[in-house]
Amino acid sequence: MRLLNHPIAAFGQRRDKTGRRVAQRRIWPRWVRPSLTAAAALCVVLTALGGWLAWRDGWAGRQAELALDQFVTATAGAGLAVEEILVEGRLHTPAESILAAVDANRGTPLLSINPSTVKERLEGLPWIRSAAVERQLPGTLFIRLVERRPMAVWQRRGHFVLIDEQGRELGDEGIEYFPRLPFIVGEDAHRVAADLVSMLAAVPSLSGRIVSAVRVGGRRWNLQLDNGMEIRLPEERAREAWAEVAALDRTQRLLSRQISIIDLRDPARINLRRAKDGAAPLPGKKDRDA
């Protein structure tokens, strides 16, 4: 077969009347363009299929992760390794708990530590309210903590734990260092302890004398004083009743009397139970509705 007579072979061979060559547009066979289009589409499909298979098998992800691990390891060899862990704001959180959350030793590549992950672990510890974690090159991991403040000691089913103002349990470690915290008892006492502590603090002259507070029926409080006296607060108007006790103590030295119980549950009167005798109303006490 003579290829010179083929339109492709004869490209550029046409001449005009003067004998000069005349360029002409190459004429492709009709089957060429559809074939090229089909080939391009096939390449796209195969590329997409290959990418999908790589993603499904995790090969691409594994290769990228491997490369990253190799890079991070190399940075440690270049001096970017953990040499010290600085912690600011730690008062009660055990150092062992912080190290467990960091999960790094001396020589660990500094870039392998994810600050967000460490922050999340730290904030999951009982004492820590918030944490900030920074990598400080070349070899320091800096941690800033804000710890929770214990508000009371909660007794529940014979077990004693510290709680903060939100009622969150802080654990029992170090409980002996907080002898002046109010002692509360009751299943739901931790949920409403913040209101109780706020109420007691409103009368500083008496708040320090409270030994314990017992939640009764999930509705009200009984307060135990340091002299053994019990104050039974009402379900409603507890703040007003507590303030009234303080006023009566100032004017009539109520808490210095030989009284075992001060009962404020009756909205019309204050009932007193003498240490050795029966109950009696407070002398001179008028009805509250008057």
UniProtKB/TrEMBL annotation:
- Which keywords belong to this entry? Cell cycle, Cell division, Cell inner membrane, Cell membrane, Membrane, Transmembrane, Transmembrane helix
Which top-level group of life is the source organism from? Bacteria
The record describes its membrane topology as: Single-pass type II membrane protein
Any one GO CC term of this protein is: plasma membrane
For biological process, the GO terms are:
cell septum assembly; FtsZ-dependent cytokinesis
Which positions, given as ranges, span the membrane?
Answer: 35-55
Identify the Pfam families for this entry: FtsQ_DivIB_C, POTRA_1
Where in or outside the cell is it found? Cell inner membrane; Membrane
| Gene3D superfamilies attached to this UniProt entry | Cell division protein FtsQ/DivIB, membrane protein fhac
Q: Answer whether the UniProt record assigns the keyword Cell cycle to this protein.
A: yes
The protein's predominant localisation is: membrane
Task: Give the protein's function.
Answer: Essential cell division protein.
- HAMAP family under this entry? FtsQ_subfam (MF_00911)
Homology family: Belongs to the FtsQ/DivIB family. FtsQ subfamily.
Query: Know the name of this protein?
Result: Cell division protein FtsQ
Q: Give the species this sequence originates from.
A: Stella humosa
Q: What is the lineage of its organism?
A: Bacteria, Pseudomonadati, Pseudomonadota, Alphaproteobacteria, Rhodospirillales
* Gene (UniProt): ftsQ
